[in-house]
C-alpha cells in the first residue's frame, strides 16, 4: 500500500479542507499515520500526490486547488476490492513482523505427509538450501516451496514470496504449494514454477515492499478460488497433486 497516499487521504478527510503538502505531511507524522526514515518526507508526499493525479486523472484521490495545495477529489470512487486489498496488505505486513514459525512448520508437515501418502520419498530440509521439501519419485527430483496462511476476515489468504529466492529457482522441477488453512480444514493450491512466472507476468502476483517480495493473494468467492482477482480462476490447481510429475 502507498503509505504516503493513504496518510494524505486520512489527513484531508479529517481536516475537510485543502492543505499545503507540507501541512499534510506534518499532520500525518504528528498523528502517527505516516512512518518514514526518508530525509525529505515533504518532497516525497508532494511527489506521491502529483503522481496519483497524473496517473489516475479524474479518478485520482486528490485534486489540486492552489499551488502545492490539495484536497480530496469529490468525484473519486475507490473500488471495493482495491480497498480490501490495501487493508489486507497493511495487516499482512504487521503479521509478518510478529508471526511465529509454527504455522509455517505445520504447513510443511502437512505437505510432506501428503507427498508421502502419494508415493513420493519426501523430506523436510533441516537446513536452508532454498527449498522447504525435497522429494523424489520414479527417479525424478522435485523441489517444493511451502507457504501457509490462515483464512482472514475477507475470505482471502495472503502469502509473501521473497523475490530473490523466487528468481534463484528457475527450474521445471520446482513447485509452490500454498496451504489454505481454515476452520473447515486444509486445501492446497499447487503451482508449478512456470505457472508462477506466468501469473507474475499477468500481474495476478504483484511486487510489494519496494519490489523485494511478491504478494500472492488467493481469494475464495462463491466456492471458487482466484489468484489476485476474479480474472484468474485457479480451480484446476486446487488439490491437484497430479500436477507434480
Main attributes?
single chain; 245 residues; alpha+beta; Arc Repressor Mutant, subunit A; Trna Endonuclease, Chain: A, domain 1; 5-stranded mixed beta sheet; 12 strands; 36% helix
The span between the termini is 38 Å
- What is the fold named in CATH at topology level of the largest domain? Trna Endonuclease, Chain: A, domain 1
Number of helices, counting only DSSP H or I runs of 4 residues or more = 7
**CATH-derived architecture of the largest domain:** 3-Layer(aba) Sandwich
Return the string of H and E elements: HEHHEEHHEEEEHEEHEEE
**Which structural class best describes the helix and strand composition?**
alpha+beta
Q: Give the neighbour order of strands across the main sheet.
A: 4-5-6-8-9
**Unreliable stretches covering 5 or more consecutive residues:** 96-100
What are the SSEs and their pairings?
Layout: H1 3-15, E1 19-20, H2 21-30, H3 41-56, E2 62-66, E3 69-72, H4 80-98, H5 102-117, E4 121-124, E5 133-137, E6 140-150, E7 156-162, H6 163-168, E8 174-182, E9 185-192, H7 193-201, E10 206-208, E11 213-221, E12 224-227
Parallel strand pairs: 6-8
Antiparallel strand pairs: 1-3, 2-3, 4-5, 5-6, 7-11, 8-9, 10-11, 11-12
Amino acid at each position: 500500500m502507498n503509505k504516503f497516499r493513504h496518510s494524505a487521504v486520512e489527513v484531508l478527510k479529517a481536516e475537510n479542507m485543502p492543505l499545503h503538502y507540507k501541512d499534510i505531511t506534518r499532520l500525518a507524522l504528528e498523528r502517527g499515520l505516516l512512518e518514514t526514515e526518508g530525509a525529505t518526507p515533504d518532497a516525497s508526499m508532494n511527489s506521491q500526490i502529483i503522481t496519483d493525479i497524473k496517473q489516475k486523472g479524474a479518478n485520482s484521490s486528490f485534486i489540486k486547488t492552489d499551488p502545492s495545495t490539495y484536497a480530496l477529489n469529490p468525484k473519486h470512487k475507490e473500488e471495493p476490492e482495491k480497498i480490501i486489498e490495501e487493508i489486507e496488505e497493511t495487516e499482512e505486513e504487521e503479521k509478518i513482523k510478529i508471526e511465529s514459525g509454527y504455522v509455517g512448520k505445520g504447513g510443511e508437515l502437512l505437505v510432506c505427509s501428503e507427498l508421502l501418502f502419494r508415493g513420493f520419498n519426501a523430506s523436510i530440509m533441516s537446513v536452508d538450501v532454498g527449498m522447504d521439501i525435497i522429494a523424489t519419485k520414479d527417479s525424478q527430483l522435485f523441489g517444493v516451496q511451502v507457504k501457509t496462511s490462515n483464512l482472514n476476515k475477507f475470505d482471502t489468504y495472503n502469502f509473501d514470496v521473497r523475490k530473490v529466492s523466487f528468481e534463484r529457482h528457475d527450474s521445471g522441477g520446482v513447485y509452490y504449494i500454498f496451504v489454505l488453512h481454515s476452520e473447515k480444514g486444509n486445501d492446497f493450491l499447487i503451482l508449478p514454477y512456470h505457472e508462477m512466472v506466468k501469473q507474475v507476468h499477468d500481474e495476478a502476483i504483484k511486487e510489494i515492499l519496494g519490489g523485494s517480495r511478491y504478494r500472492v493473494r488467493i481469494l475464495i468467492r462463491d466456492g471458487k478460488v482466484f489468484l489476485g482477482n476474479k480474472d484468474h480462476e485457479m480451480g484446476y490447481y486446487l488439490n491437484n497433486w497430479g500436477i507434480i510429475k
